[in-house]
Specification:
527 residues, mainly alpha, 6 strands, 65% helix, Na+/solute_symporter_sf, membrane, transport
């Protein structure tokens, strides 16, 4: 049975990848095909799905800081959006009921509001996957989107307590003691090293946090999230997240397959779910208007609204709970499962082209901006810099340090990770915050003095996009980039980048040459 799941997931995932669509769309399709073939889900599949979601929430926590959740643009936009969209979707449902559409006619205001509430959530799984694939987790819109998702999770916990009547144990107050044992947790992570014990430690903390919170009558997923947040400032947080990434992705396949096992749809269910899917246009518009009113830049609001415009797996939980309590007909579970699947597909396809969409419509989008943006959304011009390093991860940081040692402070560094930039600025290093894929940034940045831009970005597609935007902003200097594979190098060269460094191959060459110099004196040039 397990091999059959893997077979369907592999074939469908590969099939959609060949037509340049995200594999998760194929996994959703595989679930419906398995259901249609008459196969039954087992407890193993459910366990895999639950572990995947738990690890995903733990990973979110590793990238979040509590102060980010306290920002007005996070909590105010989340609560406003959920309240307005619940009432808006409820009104639409009642209106469709008056038109005698199937499944809507039996809804009253209470049940229509439940459906609206279920649709107000955005998918943590879908958003995380898209942000990870596009290497945008640390960007301004990426962090904003994650903050909104976490706030939605907090609302979800409150709803579950109210709907199920399961009040957490009074002993749940003991969970605040995790703050006291945080130094011990940090010490455990330190002792785990860098090998196989590091991902095992991550699994232990994520699942342990789940079980601990569940033991005290609190939603277990929240425990995994809290444990991740407690470790967010640890030096190994990023390394632990990377070590868990493949495990998490594999387990999440179980989640996508399980959606297809919800039930087999009828034609009327498919039609109703498509109507509900169209409502994400209103969800996008509401997010965009609220975020721009919070004085966020048009680009940040547009990208965040686009990636949050989908329906959530938690909506299925809300509807399932409503069905079990007799508030909704069981057909609603199938309808919403289809709408969630369709919304995943639409968001996945659109978000892959979101930067291109923004470039084409930026003048219209900017009209909604507040005249006075938030301080952290303002651009900073590097002073007296001839060389700019974009991306200050391991490779970019190494290049930045080496160039600074060679030519001094005429080298500037730029990165989309605000916390990384703050740490480097505290050390008096010549760096500033900026997203390389931000078309507004390159338009407003004076690059006339810069002779060389080094693009040390992890994804070849992102590097190509930045290079294109640099040229469109009339940058005339040299562009160098890094690549991991030969086919990426060919693509980058073809996009107009002047030099591409394959750091796997050429790092080995440099290592060999410098090591050889230890035993052989350098050859002097013949006069």
């Amino acid at each position: 049975m397990e091999f059959t799941w893997i077979l369907f997931a592999f074939v469908c995932g590969l099939a959609v990848k060949l037509i340049n669509l995200p594999p998760l769309i194929g996994f959703l399709l595989a679930g419906f095909l398995l259901n249609y073939a008459g196969l039954e889900p087992s407890s193993t599949l459910e366990s895999l799905a639950n572990i995947g979601i738990t690890l995903m929430l733990f990973s979110i926590g590793l990238k979040l800081h509590v102060k980010d959740l306290l920002k007005q643009e996070v909590w105010a936009s989340t609560l406003s959006h959920m309240g307005i969209s619940t009432l808006l979707f409820a009104g639409i449902a009642l209106l469709l009921g008056t038109l005698s559409l199937p499944y809507f006619g039996v809804l009253d205001f209470k049940t229509a509001a439940l459906v609206g509430f279920a649709l107000s959530f955005s998918s943590t799984v879908c958003v995380m996957k898209l942000l990870e694939e596009s290497s945008e987790l640390k960007t301004r819109h990426g962090q904003l989107s994650l903050g909104i998702l976490v706030m939605q999770d907090i609302v979800a916990v409150v709803f579950l307590v109210a709907a199920t009547g399961k009040i957490p144990s009074i002993w749940a107050l003991c969970l605040f003691g995790l703050l006291l044992v945080r130094p011990i947790i940090n010490k455990i992570v330190d002792k785990a090293g860098h090998g196989e014990m590091l991902p095992l430690t991550g699994l232990f903390l994520a699942l342990g946090g789940y079980e601990l919170f569940y033991l005290f009558g609190v939603k277990g997923d929240l425990g995994a999230l809290i444990l991740g947040i407690l470790l967010a400032s640890h030096a190994k947080a990023n390394e632990m997240n990377k070590s868990l990434m493949n495990f998490k992705d594999l387990f999440l396949i179980g989640f996508f397959l399980s959606i297809g096992f919800t039930a087999l749809p009828t034609l009327s269910m498919i039609g109703i779910s498509l109507i509900i899917t169209l409502v994400i246009l209103l969800k996008f518009a509401l997010f965009f208007l609220l975020l721009t009113k919070m004085k966020l830049r048009g680009r940040t609001s547009f990208l965040s609204s686009m990636i949050l415009s989908n329906y959530s797996e938690f909506g299925l939980i809300v509807v399932a709970l409503s069905v079990s309590n007799g508030w909704l007909e069981k057909e609603w579970l199938v309808v919403l499962a289809l709408a969630v699947s369709f919304s995943f597909v639409i968001t996945s396809v659109l978000y892959r082209n979101v930067h291109r969409m923004y470039r084409k419509n930026k003048d219209t989008i900017r009209r909604f901006e507040s005249p006075h943006c938030l301080p952290e959304d303002r651009f900073v011009q590097p002073v007296n810099s001839d060389i700019l390093v974009v991306g200050l991860g391991r490779v970019g940081r190494g290049a930045f340090d080496s160039l600074t040692g060679l030519v001094g402070d005429t080298v500037a560094g730029m990165d989309a990770d605000r916390n990384r930039i703050n740490r480097m600025q505290e050390a008096k290093e010549n760096v500033f915050y900026g997203d390389g894929e931000d078309a507004d940034l390159w338009e407003r940045l004076d690059t006339s003095r810069i002779n060389l831009v080094l693009l040390a970005l992890p994804a070849a597609e992102d590097t190509t996009n930045v290079a294109i935007q640099l040229r469109k902003a009339n940058y005339t200097g040299q562009i160098a980039a890094i690549a991991r594979y030969q086919d990426e190098r060919d693509i980058l060269i073809a996009s107009g980048i002047d030099n591409v460094f394959n750091f796997y191959t050429e790092a080995g060459t440099g290592f060999a040459e410098e090591s050889l110099a230890l035993v052989r004196p350098p050859v002097k040039a013949v006069a």
